[in-house]
Amino acid sequence: MFSKSGHGAIVILSVALFWSCSAFSENIIRPPEPEPLPALRPPLTPLAPSMISVPIYVDLSPMLRQINDETVVPKKFDHWGTYVKNPKAADYKYYAERDDFAMQLSLNSGSTGMETGTGLRDWWKGIQPQGSSVFMSAPLRYKIEANSSAQAAGSSVHCGEGNEWPRRATLDGNVALGLTASYNVSASVTGVVVNAIDPCLIRPASLDPTQDVNQRVTDSVRGGLTRAAAPINTMTVKHQVEQVWNALRTPIQVDQDLWLQLNPDRVGQSGVLKGGAVAEGEVQIVVNPTVVRGSEPSGATTALPPLDIQPASPGFHVTADVALDYAALSKSLANRLIGRRVQHKGDVIKITNAEISGHGGNQVVLRVDFNGDIIGHVYMIGKPAINVLTQTIFIGGLDYDSGTAELLPKVDSRLLDASFRELVTDGAIFGVTTATDRMKGLLAAALNRSLSPAVSMRGTVESVQGINVFAATDGLYVQVTSEGTVRVTAGGKP
Predict the structure, then answer these.
(1) Which of 182-196 are b and which e, b meaning 16 or more Cβ less than 10 Å from the residue's Cβ?
(2) d(CA 494, CA 473)
(3) Domain containing 186: what range?
């Protein structure tokens, strides 16, 4: 009896263990790790070319010295000894004397930049030289006498003579400045005019020789002014631009194994010159900057191209790929998901761990471990994307991989349905602000340094934001774009 009773107990216990193990095995899911896809290289989003401002200097003091040399530009205009025959007006004689010219640079923006004479604004109508203009003005005193035999009785026959004060005027000239494609400075006289402050009034007006006198004076000055501007046409700013161009070809180290390549492409001119005897202006070197990883890349070999007459687009833009390590991302993901629960009609699972890794093909794999009424882990695959507004990365289209999907019917899949996937999706959000702020600091340091003994660069990084993300096998690469300005200083003024 004893052995028979014991045998029955063993049978009952075996059956119980069988059903218990069967039930336990049905609530375990451990799919194999997904097979990786071929790796892809992250694409670069093209941006508008960037601009680096380069100062240039043109020494105008030789021209100013020449203008005020009376052997080049006369200071006295003397035709007082004999009358000038004039078939259209009265015969006349005149005398004029100028002081030294003062020089002023101004941009052509619809105004001359100075209003020293009553007719100067009208005189410039329709004349808009390209680039910048050098305006010169000298005080002028003059007198005119008309032949009295040609005048009506009682009319004025002279002005500025005898007991009268000499008439006042200004002698104004303009020289247009520009740069040629070979970086030479061009200077050309665009006009000379006499502007009366105290005009002569010789009557009748049809016989007034004042315009004739003005034309004679301006013709004399124009020739001298053309000779005075000639030395400017022998000047060049090529060396000033070339030393900057060559300095920009060298890669700049941003961080360990991280390099900024500026890739100078062309040079545009701004048409801006300002200042005094030394005119200060700028050109813009158009660059295509990018940040590359690895060992130091080779420097650009492109020689300085001809100057492009078209100005460059303003602003400085650079893209860089900021790497987010999967180990750090996994830690962040685990912190957000560990302890989270999903339950259904009294059954529950609790997440115990979570990891993210590269899957290839611009996709990531999430492994989520859990225990409770189901024990094990699942794999989910999705494609990262970036929310530009919130500067966060999320995983789009997150769903179970094929190996996990095959095993779901063997467990209570109601605990692993859409609610579970939404929970994981909501937890798989990663901020990029810390990474972009670090890149902003690195770029700011890279753009403020000496490029050579003669060339220094000064830049500001006004904004940095992530615009794209790519899943590589070793990490998520956030494509960051930065906006700012960059200017260089090269040598000193001539």
Answers:
(1) ebbbebebebbbbbb
(2) 55
(3) 57-234
